[in-house]
Amino acid sequence: MLQSFNIDDIAVEETMLKALIFDFDGLIIDTETPDYQAWSEIYISYGATLSRAKWMSHVGAWGTFNPYAYLEEQVGRELDRVKIREKRRARYEELVANQPILPGVVDMLTSAKAKGLKLGVASNSFNKWVVRHLKNRDLYHYFDTVMTLDQITIGKPEPKMYLTALHWLGVMANEAIAFEDSPTGAMGAKRAGIYTIVIPNNMTRGENFSHVDRVITSMTDLNLDTLCEEFDNVST
C-alpha cells in the first residue's frame, strides 16, 4: 500500500550560501594603484623615492606605515604635512574619480540580489569615503550593510569587522563568502571563519595568499550558480 504524503512535508534543499561580503578598496574599484601613484608623485617632487615594496607593507592595513614620516626621513627635515596632505589628496581624488568598477563586480551583485543573497561591505577605509564612491557608481543600493574602520575601530587583519558584518547580515560564518584583494584583508576574513576568495589587484598581485581558500584573476571568472554549488560541496 502506498503511503500518502503531503507536499509540504518535502524539504526543499536550499543553498547553504546566504551572504557575500566584499572588501572595497582594490576589490570593487582600484583605489590602491591611484593611492600609490599619488604618493609616488609627492616623493618624486621632493627628490625622494617610495618603493612598491615599502608601500605594500601598508596596503590593506591601517596605521602600519606613515608616509609623511618616511618622506621626512629621506629628505632629512620636517615638512609642511598639511600642504602635502592637500596636494596628495587632490591628486588622489582626481585619479580615483577616473577608476571604473572592476570587471565582474556588477554582474556578481546583480546575480546575488536575484538569488536573494545578503550583501555586505567590510572595509578598512572610512564610511564617508566608501559610501560616497558606492553611491557615485550606483552600487550602494545593492548592500544590506556597510562596515568600515571608523565604525568598528579595530580593522583587519583582526576579525571584528567581518564578525560584525555577519551579525548585521544575520548569517553565520559558514553561510558566507568573503571577497578580498590583500593578504591583510583576507586574513581578517579567515580569522572570522569565512570562506575567502582573493582577487589580487595591480598592487597585490604576487603577494602570498597561501592562507585563503581560492585565488582568481577576476570576478568575471566566477559564475554564481556554480559558486553556490561548489560552496555547498565544501560546506557539507
Primary descriptors:
alpha/beta; Rossmann fold; DNA polymerase, domain 1; 2 domains; 42% helix
Description:
- The structure is a single chain.
- By secondary structure, the chain is of the alpha/beta class.
- The protein folds into two domains: 19-30 and 100-235, Rossmann fold (3-Layer(aba) Sandwich), CATH 3.40.50; 33-97, DNA polymerase, domain 1.
- Helix content is 42%, strand content 11%.
- The protein has a six-stranded parallel sheet, sandwiched between helices.
- The two termini are 35 Å apart.
- The model is unreliable at 1-13 (pLDDT under 50).
What is the CATH homologous superfamily assignment of the largest domain? HAD superfamily/HAD-like
Q: What overall geometry do the principal axes of the alpha carbons give?
A: elongated
What fraction strand? 5-15%
Work out the helix count. Answer: 10
Count of the separate structural domains: 2
Largest sheet: 6 strands, parallel
Q: Give the C-level CATH assignment of the largest domain.
A: Alpha Beta
Adjacency order of strands in the biggest sheet: 3-2-1-4-5-6
Compute the average pLDDT. Answer: 90
List low-confidence stretches: 1-13
CATH topology heading of the largest domain: Rossmann fold
CATH architecture of the largest domain: 3-Layer(aba) Sandwich
**Which oligomerization state do the chains in this entry correspond to?**
single chain
Work out the helicity level. 40-55%
How far apart the termini lie comes to: 35 Å
Order of helices and strands: EHHHHHEHEHHEHEEH
